[in-house]
From TrEMBL:
Family matches, as InterPro entries: GAG-pre-integrase_dom, PolX-like_BBD
One Pfam family matching this protein: gag_pre-integrs
Annotated protein name in UniProt: Retrovirus-related Pol polyprotein from transposon TNT 1-94
UniProt gene name: POLX_2409
Domain Retrovirus-related Pol polyprotein from transposon TNT 1-94-like beta-barrel: 2-43
Domain GAG-pre-integrase: 70-134
Domain of life (superkingdom): Eukaryota
Amino acid sequence: MAYGHGTVNIEIKVEKHHLTEVWYVPDISRNLFSISQTLKRGFKFQASKDECSLLRDDRARLKGVRTVHGLYALEMRVLYPKVFVASADQSLQLWHERLCYQNKAHVKDILRKYQIKGDAKDSQICDGCCYGKQSRPPLGTRKQGTTTP
């Protein structure tokens, strides 16, 4: 059963192309290529005992070699999109810092309200808040008075 229909990017030798109206069938173990659909799009098909070619404008666009099972294996590969996944730290402490050191109970409410996934079981003590709540010692009195010009 097919689950999708669309376009697939492929690479033939060093050239990149795309196949249109491709069906996605996850339960088959091999990719199948319909010669009749290719002929409808203006290609010519030539085959010999050992190899096959798809031609357009008298130029070979795609070649294949015959396997031991009698099928032709096309010399191309599917280009899969490259995706770089970054793992984001979603700790309550990080959101506390992003929201300018708001009270952590308030940060939890904001995360819940906007359906942001964050670790609400954070019991980390914030160093920045501890430093901010400290009082500094007094500077003391001046021992020298002002001088007049």
